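Posting here for the record, re: adenosine monophosphate.
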Amino acid sequence: MMQGLMMKRHVLISDLIQHAELHYASHTIVSCLVEGAQVRLTYRELAHRSKQLAQSLARLGVRHGDCVGTLAWNTHRHLEAYFAISGLGAITHTINPRLFPEQIEYIINHAEDRALLVDLSFVDLVRTLRPMLPSVRFIIILSDRDHMPPDPEFMCYEDLIASEHGDFSWPDFPDDQAAALCYTSGTTGHPKGVLYSHYSTVMHAMAACRNDALGIGPASRILPVVPMFHVCAWGTPYAAALTGAHLVLPGPFLDGASLSKLIEQERTDLLLGVPTVWLGLLDHLRQHKIRLAHVRQVVVGGSAAPLAMIREFAESHGIFLVHAWGMTELSPLGTVNLPTPELMALAPEARYLQQLKQGRAVFGIELAIMDDNHQRLPHDGKTFGKLYVRGPWVASSYFRSDDRSSFHEGWFCTGDIATMTADGMMQIVDRDKDVIKSGGEWISSIDLENAALSFPDIHEACVVGIPHQRWGERPLMLVVADHEPDQGALRDHLAQHVARWWIPDRIVLVESLPHTATGKLSKKTVREQFQDYYLRQHSEEV
Ligand code: AMP
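Prediction output follows.
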């Protein structure tokens, strides 16, 4: 065998911030703080402050391989923590504060976090959990002296870093070392940890920037509304440093009015978030007759994008909604549905229907559809099966877990059910556990929800399969709407989109729907609540 004659260099997360510091020193980051202020700083300043933080953490005893937890919004301080902790060789453990306190306690203890970096919003939470967190040696509040809570144990972030000079060289170490840790919001059992390496993180960031993915470069002005505690804000903090992109961090202000103001003020051109966030933004824009002027693309993922949203972004704002699919286990980028020439040549309605699909794999990710016996299924756009993935930024096991049930011969079983076309277009049919089996046939809850969302005045829809005397399971639809929808008209509308026998036996108007910590519909809760809905009706009818 003839070896290539190229250098072997590690690719580390510290290289990203160093690159930004050296080549895009004057490019900027805008950060909205919990305290209310807005901070604007350059990559030079960000890099310096990250080094000061790295020095503080090292002085406080943080070592290679230690987990350091963060409970924080998207701000420059959180971003500095990303670079400082991983740059030192420790592990940035981002904690989702929307999880139940018992889950937060579980994951901090499971990761054995040595320290916590906490935004003011979560001080009460940390006070309550403190006695149950034996591994935590110290807690830093991500704020300045004027806003510090009185607790003597808490250390002040700005004071700490101000006491360091920041003249610091990032250490070099193998790039397969752990860099960051994220727990999935799994709805059954304990949350599971996904442990990213430096290599996987940098590879993912490079992939995310490419034009066949999110197309991020030095002229980009990006607003990750997706939180830095949800799969590292989909890798945007790393991608921004890699390219020197202008990064806009919204802090805790994720409502339509605040986002709209920030988008206009910063002339952002790329926005990223889950569908519920865009529902809020679109509501606000509609009510106030605002047209987004500078936005080129909005990326949506985490849950299926509804047709009405795709249409409204296109027709009211001239914005292409990029539908992306991914998972915590995929760092998270798996597929994107981009405006290819073939797609843009279609008439608008035909194009919107294509945009409902989750897209093509990003280079580096391989997809396969398999049956229950791990046999490959055809890519004919119709046959659906379990979606498997593999690639350099896909998890190969869970952190401190011997549960191998999702891993099979080098593939990761996503738990999603999908179809693929011959030219590689993937569409999620459902989550494995959410797909509805009625009289032995499958019904896609996502298709039904999408159809309902294109009916006037319906804001949100949720379809679950619940036990039925005759059919085993039948779909039940819950809708959030301005008023009780006309059942007949809604049924006729659904019949234009799906097979008649898919149409739910009952459509129930509700005030709101439950969501998980990552903004997905919590179908488990709905199923539990409506468990015996059809069985009860049956016994009343008999
Ligand atoms: P998480 O690990 O919290 O990011 O959740 C990953 C799961 O979210 C996937 O396995 C899918 O079930 C779902 N998901 C992510 N993106 C999409 C999408 N674009 N359409 C439908 N479901 C999605």
